[in-house]
Structure formats: structure tokens, C-alpha cells
Amino acid sequence: TQLMKAKKIFLAIFCLLLFSSLHAQNEPIKILAIGNSFADDGIEYLDEIAISAGKRIIVANTYIGGCSLAQHVDNARHDNHNYLYRKNTEGKYTEENGKSLLEAIKDENWDYIVFQQVSSLAGQYSSYFPELTELMKYVRANATNPHVQYALQQTWAYAEDSTHPGFFKYGKDQQAMYEDIVFSYDQAAKKQNISIIIPTGTAIQNARSSSLGDTLCRDGYHLDLKYGRYTAACAWFETFFGESAIGIAYRPEGVTDLQADIAQHAAHNAIRCPLSVTDMSDFK
Fold first, then answer.
1. β-strand partners of 151
2. Partner residues linked to 99 by β-bridges
3. DSSP characters for the chain?
4. Which tens digit of pLDDT belongs to each residue from 254-283?
5. CA–CA separation, 86 vs 110, rounded Å?
6. CA geometry: angle at 42 spanning 82 and 202, to 5°?
7. Are 255 and 230 in contact (CB under 8 A)?
8. Angstrom distance (rounded) from CA 155 to CA 270
9. For 31, phi and psi rounded to 5 degrees?
10. Which residues have C-beta within 8 Å of that of residue 181, sequence separation ≥ 6?
11. Rounded (10°) angle between helices 257-272 and 227-241
């Protein structure tokens, strides 16, 4: 009968949709950072954290040390093959030299593509444009996933005793640099209609208000290789997977229980309140 046929068609469609949904849920999340060493700091432990939480992930970074938005744009314009392409596919790490931005963009059907400004200019809003607009236009034209989403990594302020020449732009004042960075990323995201900001900078500043103090950087600007990078990765994890960083099972070797607790809470608080510091002086 017509009713039976309709029921069979409905059941077939339902089963197909269910299969598609389960298949989609089982697919790894794919994240590409168009970055530099600060992106490396952010994602170093992201795959271990994700895997420990039962998640599948592919994450990569187009790496040039100190690469600015302007340099990425120049590389895109001239198809320069000068990136170190660092990629982690579900726990398996590879790196290739001499890769272009185009090759990285087309390497996977990326779910998320992350941009950032070079750290010394991160708090200088005027440095974002027109370069960010042009870079995003190039990426949009070449991304293979029609549903790709774009994000910004909010970088962090330098250590108070940093000797980085870029620190002078902020009067060698960590709080001033942090506030300028937060403002610049927030405004850039609004201008470009980007809805995702990874609040790494706020996570690091939160952790600095704990008993860890101003020890989150290893050289005045790059993150400490253990709990500094772990704090950043916790912020990335909660941003993209939507699960609280508090209680993450994985921690890097050498990170103490207290340091892990601070890192996780610092990241979680940054997700909850990304534009200002959450006082964590009780963590000691």
C-alpha cells in the first residue's frame, strides 16, 4: 500500500540520516593554524589532551618563526614555499619543510582555520588591516570544506622582565600589553565576523594571578614548555570541543597536580570570561 511504501521510504531516510550523523560524529576535528611559534606553543599538547578525552583530532601549523599577518599575505601572493608544515594526525607527528600556504590549506578539509598576529604587534590594532582581510579572502577562496569556520588565537602578554624589543611598544608594561591584545583581537574578530577567539592570552594572565606568578614564559615571551604550553592547550581544547578543561586526564610529564589544576582552571575561566582576568590567588 501507499502507506507501507511511505513508511519504508521514511525508515530508509531515517537510517541514512542516522548513519551520516554517526559517521560525522566519528570524524576527527581538523584544525589548521596559520601561525608561528606562538601557535606551536598553543597546540603542543592539544592532541594528547584530545586523545585522553576520547576525541579524534588532526591539528597542523604553518610555521615560520615570528611570522606576521603581513608576511603570511606576502607568502600567499607569491606562493612562497618557505613554511615548516607541522602536523599531528591522531597522535602521529610529521613535519615537512618548503611547504606553501596553499598546500597546507588544501591538505585537509579543515573544520577550523586559525589566524593570529605576530606577538609584538598583537596589541596594535592598526597592524591587522588590511592584511587579515586579504589573508582570509585568500583562505576562503582555497579552503576545500564549504563549512569551514575561522578563529583567532588571542596571544599573551610578555613576562614583566622580558627583553623582547617589541615590549617597548607597550611601555614594558605587561598589563597594558595584555589589555591592548584583548582589545585588538576582539575588534578584529568583530570586523571580520569571526565568532571564535581562543582566549590563550587571558588563560595565561589568569594563571599568572595564581601562585605560579610570572613564570609562564621560558624566555620572556614564549611559553614555559610544561605548564605554560599546557595552559594554552587546555584553552584550545575547551574552545573547540566545548568540554570543560577542568578534570582533563592528560598532563605533560613534569607537571605537578597543582600546576595542572591551575592550568585547567585558568583555561576554563578564560573561556567563561575571555576579555578580563579572573583572580586565581586562591590557587597556591
1. 114, 196
2. 83
3. -HHHHHHHHHHHHHHHHHHHHHHHHHSPEEEEEE--HHHHHHHTTHHHHHHHTT--EEEEEEE-TT--HHHHHHHHHHT---EEEEEEETTEEEEEEEE-HHHHHHHS--SEEEE---GGGTT-GGGSTTHHHHHHHHHHHH-S-TT-EEEEE---PPPTT---GGGGGGTT-HHHHHHHHHHHHHHHHHHTT--EEE-HHHHHHHHHTSTT-S-SBSSSSSBPTTHHHHHHHHHHHHHHH-S-STT-S---TT--HHHHHHHHHHHHHHHHSTTSPPP-TT--
4. 999 999 999 999 999 999 999 999 999 999
5. 15
6. 130
7. yes
8. 12
9. -125, 125
10. 122, 123, 154, 155, 156, 157, 201
11. 40
| 131-142 vs 69-78: helix crossing angle, rounded to 10 | 40
Strand partners, 198: 153
Which amino acid, one-letter code, is at 43? I
Closest C-alpha among 96, 92, 83, 91 to residue 33:
83
The answer to whether 239 and 271 have CB atoms below 8 angstroms apart is yes
Residue 259 cell numbers, joined: 600546576
Of 229, 199, 203, nearest to 217 by C-alpha is 229
In percent, how much of the chain has pLDDT > 90?
Answer: 90
Q: Is there a contact between 199 and 232 (Cβ–Cβ < 8 Å)? A: no
Q: Render pLDDT for 60-90 as a digit per residue (tens, 0 to 9).
A: 999 999 999 999 999 999 999 999 999 999 9
> Grid coordinates in use for 244?
570543560
Calculate the alpha carbon distances from 245 to 135, 178, 270 in Å.
31, 22, 11
